[in-house]
Write a structure and sequence with these properties.
heterotetramer; A: 8-stranded parallel beta sheet; 4-stranded antiparallel beta sheet; 35% helix; B: 15 strands; binds flavin-adenine dinucleotide; binds flavin mononucleotide; binds FE2/S2 (inorganic) cluster
């Protein structure tokens, strides 16, 4: 009998430990492209929306993509309908996906963050909220996710607003992600997800100018996996709340590496672009990987500590 | 025009049954057993298998490629031709595929062309403007129009012999005029010279233009048509990571100025009046 | 007539802008393996030694290497003869290489750093000194290179000890390398080199334990290039002293990217393992790349600012 | 023994003139026009060209491979045979190479074996112990001893048929005894059983042992010989990034306990009494 992958993330029941990385799978677009086959065979056990902001955003000017050795740089700039449009038009259709929904939000102040969290948490379609803190705070001017104190302060402000799980998405662009993680935990976070993309630039070989319209972007894909693994291990060891591990996960073997490094569940990002069914492949591959490595259950791997 | 059906969810291996050089380009043929029939203007995301990779770690992402011809085999399977210009590691790897190899494809993706009458009730026929590798979607559209008895004229432009190919294979000589920047054949100069002459010639009221090619050509066509308020549909390109709306990487500025089209799902075919420029991201 | 690559780095005259990354080319071992052909055709315009410590070090237990997508992790642990052995046995033989010598040093206190700098600078074979600050300070417990103030303080302490160029090797494991760079400049650094390797871990697929004997290592190679490029751009824009750019440089095109990003010269590291003559290939490729991109001289590319 | 000459500086393309399956392994042959003659125990750093890369971004670094046979062509060129066990992306890529392909090689690198008399003035002959892919250097050493009229006996051990090969091609049957863990042929069990029996048999005072194979086998051989103070040389393995002393990655613990050998330049052949274990890094 094959190993069961059923698990949970701070109270959210999951059929398997494979989520999507925010912004790497537009389930609504995918449904119109692939039809109901997407619903019958939904690749993730919970769906994480791309990051929502209060006001609509157009996103960054082109170019937004650059391929790198075993990876890619993106500079998308969070295009989106804004909170209202999201709640009115997108959320109801996401509810049709048939999996728990985690909504990612970002704001440039605690107040607006609060607005977003309250408005999103109020909707029963929503199982959890992910906080994208890789953004500057208009008041302090500091990138929240780079500062343990800023992160703790933000969480202290948001925690009282909802009983639903709050997941802090950590930025990898810090010396010690474990310190930021401790801040998030102290502030009341229910879980942490990492890594977000790593600061990167690309130069147009022809014009010798910046290739990316926004001048800078974030690196993701296979290339970042060893860095993500190190941060997941450091963060998971530093906190007692669960972590969502991601960064270059491409198959069951790499997913297992993240779980062994301390992640409770994993998320697939860039690999979705290479294969729309990547989430399914990772889940099926994970069962084989667990068996090959002699694990009797997913929990055994989740509980094992790396030495 | 034939409306797009949904693509099979995921990517599927297709057998390579032919690969040959045509001028400076390469045409290879895949047998797609599962996929629905694509419509002119649609594209696929391709990656050679196994080992979609090369020295230096690229290609990594699949590559967006328009189909250049659709035929049915005796056994009713779809034969898809693709026309390739080797400009980097991805197209080079695809061009390396040989008969018997396997190619992973996802799609068909995107919105195709409208029929002339859908763009202009007065439309007498269609003017197809293809530049370089951009002749591929034009070749498909041409067949489509012929099948429907809709008159067309095709204008094809190339930089030089090295950057041309598929002309005889994909286009009949009838109704086709060529322009080579180096004077290699046909008109010496830009294909847009031919378009201008043609629009001067006929009554623009009856004209409808379809174009695919390098950004500079598409931008010229867009402006020429706009100035004469001739309806035009452009098959655009942009870097694409996914092809199915997942990454938001394929941004093309809207005419309105507010925001961007997601080219893979809103395009790749867009009307001239839907975009502010065909040069987005080029040389900025 | 081909473009000349002659340049200089804070006073050190160089035939071309291609150095080696510290610890990625043991010229003495290479000479015994390849013989005098190495001297006739030395791949770098200046030679950077691997990092020297005061006392001899054995280095880390195996495994020390792990291959990653388009890169590798190393966990070498600075094995070496210690200051005395280096000055007595290695330095005189390095002098036979026929290129300027830059000696990399590391210590866990300002005092010992001072000892190393004085002893090394006193030798006329030495043209410059690189300071590897990716190490904790025994007193503050902080990784010097992660703290602008620590770095500035260290430089203030070392600056008076020698008139020879002091190059600070920055760690990439920080949120804002430009701030550390400003600290180094304020403290009196003559140049900055970056990036060092990025924290990474590897898991043994068979034992599911840490693969690396030391439990952690540093990522390098093609995979890190886009990250290195971003840090080189940020640092070069923040300071007025020259920078030595490195991180995944594999050919003339990638070397040019670093120069366009603001580096005055570049260094080749991991690529030396793939090709012992990589330094030569990069130099020859750089001439072709400059010509292809329409630069009339190396200086033109060095002076161009990225927009 | 023939002393190592310096390797040509850099890597050089060599033509693949043959590649064939032998049991569960593969042997391929390169023509090395520039390189000096290697000595038994030396190795090369290999990478297939072009595109030393694969799905997932590996292989990235060149791979260390011992040569398994050296011959001279009519035109006096060196023909180098390599025996490959496909255990991962690097060996898989090398095994894909076909006649006419090109392979980049650097080397020969490292220190080879000593002659029996150099290890033991009393030496009557040599006992060669090869396990799995480790039979390659033993095959070279065997030829070397035969050429010098030095008596030898070869003991070869394999896990099973799938993990064996090159026996008939690289070793004559005379003086060769086999052990298969699955009893497929010869002794059913470990090759070290044969070694023990042999050492019990003769007068250990005259014995000299050479071994190459998996870490567990080498460690057993090392201990067996140490207990009987029989001189032994082991051809060890370790992950290697460069092969020429540049990276310090190939650390093997010294017997003295203080520090590590750099296997690529201090080895790959080391005396049993020079190391504290042949299991460094294995399963720790
Ligand atoms: C809808 C659509 C249909 C298409 N149809 C066809 C077709 O039928 N035939 C065809 O040959 N092509 C077609 N293309 C174009 C093709 O997909 C791109 O040219 C693709 O990038 C080629 O990949 P490559 O690796 O060969 O070249 P790349 O390395 O991607 O180079 C192509 C261009 O991308 C830029 N570039 C350079 N380096 C990078 C990098 N590291 N990352 C990102 N961009 C880089 C440069 O501007 C370069 O000129 C189509 C594109 C789209 C969007
Ligand atoms: C001196 C010397 C001579 C050798 N001679 C031969 C020979 O003649 N024939 C032969 O077949 N082999 C030989 N080898 C062994 C061969 O070089 C290694 O097995 C090599 O790593 C194979 O590469 P791979 O990509 O095929 O397998 P790898 O993926 O490198 O796997 C090989 C082993 O390395 C470990 N590993 C797994 N993943 C990784 C990773 N990502 N990075 C690093 N290590 C990993 C595992 O323990 C695995 O079992 C020799 C090695 C040395 C040092
Ligand atoms: C195109 C793209 C868009 C992304 N958008 C978001 C986003 O909106 N919010 C967010 O928190 N992370 C975003 N990410 C980061 C991913 O969720 C993930 O953290 C990162 O890509 C690392 O995982 P991967 O290597 O598997 O892609 C985006 C990544 C990519 C590649
Ligand atoms: C095996 C290895 C050993 C290294 N040793 C040192 C060292 O002793 N001192 C140092 O400052 N950097 C050291 N580095 C870092 C390199 O000098 C360089 O900064 C880094 O590898 C990035 O460049 P690359 O991607 O071209 O290798 C080492 C890197 C590698 C791969
Ligand atoms: S290519 Fe990914 S959204 Fe268009
Ligand atoms: S393999 Fe690099 S030093 Fe031995």
């Amino acid at each position: 009998m094959a190993i069961s992958l059923a698990t949970d993330l701070c109270g959210i029941k999951l059929d398997d430990p494979v989520l999507n990385g925010s912004g790497t799978f537009d389930a609504l677009a995918a449904r119109s492209v692939f039809g109901d086959a997407l619903i019958r065979d939904f690749p993730f056990s919970a769906y994480v929306s791309k990051t929502i902001t209060r006001s609509p955003r157009a996103g960054n000017p082109p170019h937004r993509l650059w391929e790198t050795p075993s990876g890619m740089i993106n500079s998308i700039g969070l295009p989106g309908p804004g909170l209202e449009g999201f709640l009115e038009r997108d959320l109801p259709r996401m509810a049709e996906l048939g999996v728990p929904l985690i909504v990612s939000v970002m704001a440039d102040s605690r107040e607006v963050f609060g607005e977003l969290v309250e408005a999103v948490a109020a909707r029963e379609e929503v199982a959890g909220i992910e906080l994208n803190v890789s953004c500057p705070n208009v008041h302090s001017g500091l990138i929240v996710g780079e500062q343990p104190a800023e992160t703790e302060g933000l969480m202290k402000a948001l925690r009282p607003l909802t009983a639903k799980p709050l997941i802090v998405k950590l930025t990898p662009n810090v010396a010690n992600p474990d310190e930021v993680a401790r801040g998030a935990e102290a502030g009341g976070a229910d879980a942490l997800s990492l890594i977000n993309t790593i600061k990167a630039v690309a130069i147009d070989p022809v014009t010798t100018r910046n290739w990316l319209g926004a001048g800078q972007g974030g690196l993701s894909g296979h290339a970042v996996r060893p860095i993500a693994l190190a941060q997941v291990r450091a963060v998971s060891a530093a906190v007692s709340i669960p972590t969502v591990g991601m960064g270059g996960i491409a198959d069951g073997e790499s997913a297992l590496e993240f779980i062994l490094a301390g992640a409770r569940v994993v998320a697939v990002g860039t690999e979705n672009f290479r294969d729309p069914r990547a989430g399914i492949e990772v889940g099926e591959g994970l069962v084989r990987a667990l068996e090959r490595r002699g694990f009797g259950s997913l929990a055994e791997a989740q509980d094992s500590t790396l030495s | 025009m034939a409306s797009e059906s949904t693509a099979p969810f995921g990517r599927r291996p297709c057998g390579v049954v032919d690969s040959r050089v045509t001028g400076g380009y390469r045409i290879f043929t895949l047998i797609d057993e599962e996929g629905p029939a694509p419509v002119p203007g649609q594209f696929y995301m391709l990656s050679a298998a196994p080992d979609w990779a090369g020295e230096g770690g690229r290609p990594f992402l699949p590559r967006a490629i328009s189909y250049a011809r659709l035929e049915r085999t005796a056994r009713g399977q779809q034969r898809l031709d693709f026309l390739i210009d080797e400009v980097g590691p991805g197209t080079a790897r695809l061009a390396q595929m040989e008969r018997g190899d396997s190619c992973l494809i996802a799609g068909p993706f995107g919105h195709g062309f409208s029929l002339p009458r859908e763009l202009n009730p007065e439309a007498a026929g269609a003017i197809l403007v293809g530049g370089g590798i951009g002749i591929a979607p034009m070749a498909v559209l041409r067949r489509h129009l012929i099948d429907r008895g809709i008159p067309y004229r095709a204008l094809l432009g190339f930089r030089d012999r090295a950057h041309s190919g598929g002309i005889d294979e994909l286009f009949g000589c009838e109704e086709t005029r060529l322009a080579f920047e180096d004077g290699n054949a046909g008109h010496k100069g830009y294909v847009t010279d031919l378009l201008l002459r043609m629009l001067e010639g006929d009554d623009p009221a009856g004209a409808v233009v379809y174009a695919c090619g390098p950004p500079a050509m598409l931008e010229a066509v867009r402006i020429i048509c706009a100035e004469r308020s001739v309806p035009v549909e452009l098959a655009l390109e942009s870097p694409m990571a996914c092809g199915y709306g997942a990454c938001y990487g394929c941004a093309v500025p809207k005419a309105s100025g507010d925001g961007y089209h997601r080219l893979c799902v809103d395009g790749p075919v867009l009307r001239g009046d839907e975009i502010s420029t065909a040069l987005a991201g080029v040389g900025i």
